[in-house]
Amino acid sequence: MVTKEEIIAFEKEIADIFATGVIRAPVHLRAGREDALINIFKEHQIGDDDYVFGFWDSHELALLKGVPREELKQAIIDGKSISLCFPKQNVLCSGIVGSLMGTAAGTAWALKNQGKKGRAFLFCGDMSAETGIFHEAVKYVYNFDLPAIFIVCDNGVSVMTDTRATWGSPEPWFVGTKYESKIIYFKYTNGYPHSGLGKLIKF
Ligand SMILES: Cc1ncc(C[n+]2csc(CCOP(=O)(O)OP(=O)(O)O)c2C)c(N)n1
Question: Considering the domain boundaries, does residue 201 fall inside one?
Fold first, then answer.
């Protein structure tokens, strides 16, 4: 499996490439959650049969799921950073908040009812976890005991908006509910801005 150092170096390399202006599309870099993600992949033994769903910030997920480094790098350079899809490795991502949560639940439904190996792992942010569709998807996989886990990576903000202040609650909605059995939750501080490098890049 890819190491923490390799993940950090990859994001740094993408940051440097992005700064040159050759990537004519958004790039969302992340730092500070490498240990948490590696632990989740290790503890749950996320492997070839499993599906990983992510959003605009999925470089680390693709690397951890086994997408070759150079293939991933080329996809990002080609402008696909916010919607990385690698069917061979079962990595499917979207730049749309709330999308793919139903897809993850449906994938888990199909895996279970077709008697196939594999599970669905969906990684999202703290604000995404407050959406109605997140609640519906988690409720569905909980009620039907589907092989899906939703991982909430909490950096405290939605772009620059304080998630907890927005919802008037010090904790995510699911804390203390039965749905926690289908959710993994951790906090981190992102070492990069939400998107890009925090400065204007000229093409
Ligand atoms: C439907 C939709 N609305 C708005 C956006 C713009 N947008 C992109 S990321 C994001 C913030 C989401 O916050 P969170 O889920 O906490 O993600 P993170 O901070 O981890 O990136 C927003 C509003 C979008 N991509 N899709």
Answer: no
